[in-house]
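User: Design a sequence. Structure:
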């Protein structure tokens, strides 16, 4: 419930039941600071209207760019106030959907292997020994049987192995 509505209800209860303001707020479980708070500043209404106009004409502008435009127009307004009014009005930039990187259309994927030794895959694995030396393993695997046909291990690998 907004503070304006709370004030109206508190005034109604106060007039009908003739009780004090502090008692009305205490019984309702509300904070009395909402009763004493002054109404909104009329300058904010004009500013809010201007923020709405800018966001309607420039759809891709967020509150920071709107703040820059307002400053250029001569408004002496804080960035945090622009953000608060921007959010109060329910304005929000729509997030752009991320484009998915698609594979090239001409690429042809080979089918699964149907017999033994039809397709092999190879992979390099690097690890470190306890003494700190690196070693590499070249693993060659048959895709149909998933058997490792060759596994070569080297401390240093040359172009020719």
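Assistant: Done.
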């Amino acid at each position: 419930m907004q503070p304006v509505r709370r004030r109206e209800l508190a005034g109604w209860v106060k007039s009908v039941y003739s009780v004090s303001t502090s008692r009305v707020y205490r019984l309702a479980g509300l904070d009395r600071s909402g009763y004493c708070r002054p109404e909104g500043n009329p300058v904010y209404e004009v500013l809010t209207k201007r923020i709405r106009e800018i966001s309607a004409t420039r759809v891709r502008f967020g509150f920071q760019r709107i703040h820059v435009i307002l400053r250029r127009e001569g408004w002496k307004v804080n960035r945090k106030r622009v953000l608060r009014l921007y959010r109060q009005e329910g304005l929000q930039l729509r997030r752009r959907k991320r484009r998915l990187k698609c594979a090239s259309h001409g690429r042809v994927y080979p089918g699964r292997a149907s017999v033994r030794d039809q397709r092999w895959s190879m992979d390099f694995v690097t690890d470190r020994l306890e003494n700190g030396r690196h070693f590499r393993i070249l693993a060659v695997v048959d895709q149909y049987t998933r058997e490792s046909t060759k596994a070569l291990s080297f401390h240093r690998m040359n172009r020719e192995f």
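The mean pLDDT is 83. The longest strand covers residues 120-128.
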